[in-house]
Design a protein that fits this description.
It is built from 3 helices and 8 strands. With about 140 residues, the protein is of the alpha/beta class. About 20% of the residues are buried.
Length: about 140
């Protein structure tokens, strides 16, 4: 079976803040910026993975979702309980210093994990959990 990841979605409540983080701090390239029916989707990705896109979308962007569910999603995002993305990097410590210096919310300083990676964790401006892992052979 020929199966590869193409896109993943991260809910954001402010696209301009998200762009400042994902583009300016993490160095991802902007691949699209689309407005539709009062909403906005921004697509970013790593230059090292041209076929994988991360879509920064409004919380509960589905047109079929109820107002109560939209409110619940916005509250969960604000609490920081929605899942995010795990990135890999060749230098966890350097990446940590760069992201920390940007003022991002630090959840975990770089540390060696018992399952074989060195990693650190932050929250993006919307509160999503982002982990950055370095494999020992990197």
């Amino acid at each position: 079976m020929d199966l590869k990841l193409s896109q993943c979605f991260i809910a954001v409540d402010d696209h301009d803040k998200a762009l400042a983080f994902y583009r300016d701090v993490l160095g991802l390239e902007v691949r699209g910026d689309v407005a539709f029916e009062g909403m906005r989707w921004v697509t970013v990705g790593s230059p090292l993975q041209p076929d994988v896109q991360i879509v920064l979308e409004p919380p509960a962007a589905s047109p079929d979702i109820s107002p109560a569910d939209k409110q619940a999603m916005a509250e969960l995002l604000a609490k920081g309980v929605l899942r995010g993305v795990i990135f890999s990097t060749a230098d966890c410590d350097a990446l940590y210093e760069r992201v920390r210096a940007s003022g991002a919310d630090v959840l975990q300083e770089p540390m060696d994990q018992p399952y074989g990676v060195r990693d650190c964790a932050f929250r993006d401006p919307a509160g999503n959990l982002l982990r950055f892992t370095e494999r020992p052979d990197a």
